[in-house]
Amino acid sequence: MKLYYAPGACSIGIHVLLEEIGKPYELAKLNLMQGDQYGAAFTSVNPKSKVPTLERPDGSVLTEFGAIAFWLAAANPEASLYPADIEARTQATSLIDYVVATVHMQGFGRLFRPGNFGPREEDQDAVKQRGREIVDKAFRLIDSRIAGKEYAVGPFSIADAALFYVEFWASKRMNIELPGHCAAHYERMIGRPSVQRVLKDEGFA
Ligand SMILES: N[C@@H](CCC(=O)N[C@@H](CS)C(=O)NCC(=O)O)C(=O)O
């Protein structure tokens, strides 16, 4: 199994899940700033030019955070990464979709790459401001949803890996203060040995 990743990118959540599972895997590092994702060596694996990309033991390739996380959980039931309870499972899926489609793509996407949302230089600040509003609102909503829970939907699950990567971006990349329950969740994640190993491997510890 091989994870194509970029340090500190959303792939960090899948990297955490691989460490939680604890089975051997390889890492293939991409430098997104240098455009590795557009080179033939990578587009022959994933023509979408995105990380995370997971090459499975049979050589087939999976893309999209939610799909990769779901498959890892389903293929490794002993790691208990997906709640057995139907309601918790549904809530986990809902949170992953919200993190990827809204917090990441709509919110942080505007903050990191404003040019993708409006090519005119004079619009960039307004695009970033809208991104910040989307991120702030999303963290407020997530905060109320995870109140009173140890992890996002109860026991640790794939939803925590998704929530972790956007919390990591807020804290480490954008200096955005997380609301209380999200900040506590982030600290809980940082305290997990899997996350410590990943932060070290990706050059953040
Ligand atoms: N919908 C994709 C989003 C993946 C994504 O946007 N990855 C970013 C890094 S966080 C990327 O590879 N960007 C490279 C680029 O767009 O050039 C998923 O869920 O995995």
Quick rundown:
Residues 85-205 form the GST C-terminal domain. The chain is α+β, with helices and mostly antiparallel strands.
List the helices and strands and how they pair.
Elements: E1 2-5, H1 11-21, E2 26-29, H2 40-43, E3 53-55, E4 61-63, H3 65-75, H4 86-112, H5 124-146, H6 158-173, H7 180-190, H8 193-201
Parallel strand pairs: 1-2
Antiparallel strand pairs: 1-3, 3-4
The chain binds glutathione.
Question: Overview of this structure, please?
Answer:
This protein has 205 residues and is α+β, with helices and mostly antiparallel strands. The protein has 2 domains: 2-80, Glutaredoxin (3-Layer(aba) Sandwich); 86-192, Up-down Bundle (Glutathione S-transferase Yfyf (Class Pi), Chain A, domain 2). The protein is built from 8 helices and 4 strands. It has helices at residues 11-21, 40-43, 65-75, 86-112, 124-146, 158-173, 180-190, 193-201, and strands spanning 2-5, 26-29, 53-55, 61-63. The chain has a 4-stranded mixed β-sheet with strand order 2-1-3-4, covered by helices on one side. Strand 1 (2-5), helix 1 and strand 2 form a beta-alpha-beta unit. The longest helix is centred in the middle third of the chain and has 27 residues, at 86-112. It starts with a strand and ends with a helix. The model has no long low-confidence stretch (mean pLDDT 97). The site of glutathione has 11 residues, from loops.
Shape annotation = globular
Question: Which structural class fits the helix and strand makeup?
Answer: alpha+beta
List each distinct ligand once: glutathione
Q: Report the biggest beta sheet as strand number plus sense, adding barrel if it closes.
A: 4 strands, mixed
Distance between the termini: 25 Å
Q: Using the CA coordinates, give the radius of gyration.
A: 17 Å
The strands making up the biggest β-sheet line up spatially as: 2-1-3-4
| Structure summary, number of beta strands | 4
- Percent in strands: 5-15%
CATH topology of the largest domain: Glutathione S-transferase Yfyf (Class Pi), Chain A, domain 2
Low-confidence stretches: none
- The helix content is 40-55%
Give the topology string: H per helix, E per strand. EHEHEEHHHHHH
In the CATH hierarchy, what is the architecture of the largest domain at level 2?
A: Up-down Bundle
Please, what is the average pLDDT?
Answer: 97
Count of individual helical segments: 8
Q: Give the domain tally.
A: 2
CATH class of the largest domain: Mainly Alpha
